[in-house]
Design goal:
The protein is an alpha/beta fold. The protein is built from 11 helices and 16 strands.
Length: 350
């Protein structure tokens, strides 16, 4: 991706992030200077995507220790960040890693160690996603049609990670390899995160077409899709997967249409303590996200428009669960496996 584009980076004793709530219409950065800033960035979705949330949380701990690194400050930082969003397991994985690394250290060493560990988490995420791209490319190469037509849901590209992305990493790898691909991009209401995917692909020069979410089943049934690849906010031990709401419907349509359905995610997205999808907490977000839609008005000014009265009852689950039986395989940095064989990948890591 171009050098000017990044999701998160250190700048002195602060952290710069790309404010994703302004995309695709405006490219702007924000600076996080405190624990409160980091928590707000995650909660308000200035940063989003499970891997990036984990990286941001790690840096949030480092920011929190600027004014004191005792046990109480460390615990408060982890508790505050853990409460921001419930579904993405990378958040809790990163906080557990930071806590486990820092607690045994003398207080005087914790601040520098926190920055170093957050930096390591970001670098490892980028490296893992690079490998996900390579393993996903092997799946794309097996498809005889050119260009290969991929379908994704929400945004699981470099915007959702430290670099490369998860579900989009194979598309970027295919472009590097000179293999033509086209991506069907669902808009992903109510947050319209598919627009972020479309923006990413435009920046990368990868052909793509934006579609209404409800058009996905039609395209799958018509044979316009060769492969569905989505990301994950949490994968249970049995392979059941939580991802942006609407993913389950694509999995159902793909299964009925005989189209392979893959989940791409780093192993940090696997919750081995969660036996199945029924145990994954589903975030319920504010009804205003459904009752209102944002965009640019005729003057090019950002505006929010009500599409339903405030009195309208709304259910707004942010995620849904795709059962393992509808998932062809899970693509991780250590290879591709069937949903029920995730344990083999962790054994490789030993």
């Amino acid at each position: 991706m171009p050098d000017r584009l990044f999701t998160i980076r250190e700048e002195g004793d602060s952290v710069a992030i790309l404010d994703q709530t302004l995309l695709p219409h405006q490219h702007a950065t924000r600076h996080l200077n405190s624990l409160a800033d980091a928590a707000h960035a995650i909660r308000a979705m200035l940063v989003r995507g499970a891997p990036l949330i984990g990286v941001t949380a790690a840096y949030g701990v480092a920011l929190a220790l600027k004014d004191g690194a005792g046990n109480k400050a460390l615990q408060q930082a982890c508790d505050t960040l853990a409460a921001t969003r419930p579904t993405a397991v990378n958040l809790h994985w990163a906080l557990a890693r930071m806590r486990g690394h820092l607690l045994p250290l003398p207080v005087a060493q914790r601040r520098a160690a926190a920055w170093a560990e957050a930096r390591a988490i970001a670098a490892e995420d980028a490296a893992a996603n690079r490998q996900i791209g390579r393993h996903g490319l092997a799946l794309i190469e097996k498809i005889p049609r050119r260009p290969v037509n991929l379908m994704t849901h929400c945004n699981a590209g470099w915007l959702a990670t430290a670099a490369w992305g998860t579900a989009l990493a194979p598309a970027y790898a295919a472009r590097e390899a000179g293999l033509p691909v086209h991506v069907w991009v669902s808009e992903t209401r109510p947050r319209n995160q598919g627009l972020l995917t479309a923006w990413e692909l435009h920046e990368a020069g990868i052909p793509h077409t934006l579609i209404a979410d409800n058009a996905a089943g039609h395209l799958l049934r018509q044979g316009a899709v060769d492969l569905v690849i989505v990301g994950a906010d949490r994968i249970a031990a049995n392979g059941d997967t939580a991802n942006k709401v609407g993913t389950y419907l694509k999995a159902l349509a793909a299964a009925d249409s005989g189209v392979p359905f893959f989940v791409a995610a780093p192993l940090s997205s696997v919750d081995r303590d969660c036996p199945g999808g029924a145990h994954i907490p589903i975030e319920e977000r504010e009804g205003s996200e459904v009752r209102h839609v944002g965009g640019l008005d005729r003057r090019g000014v950002h505006a929010t428009v009500a599409i339903a009265p405030d009195t309208t009852a709304v259910a707004n689950p942010a995620f849904d669960i795709t059962p393992a039986r509808f998932i062809t395989g899970i693509v991780t940095e250590r290879g591709v496996c069937a949903p029920g064989e995730l344990h083999t990948l962790f054994e490789k890591a030993k």
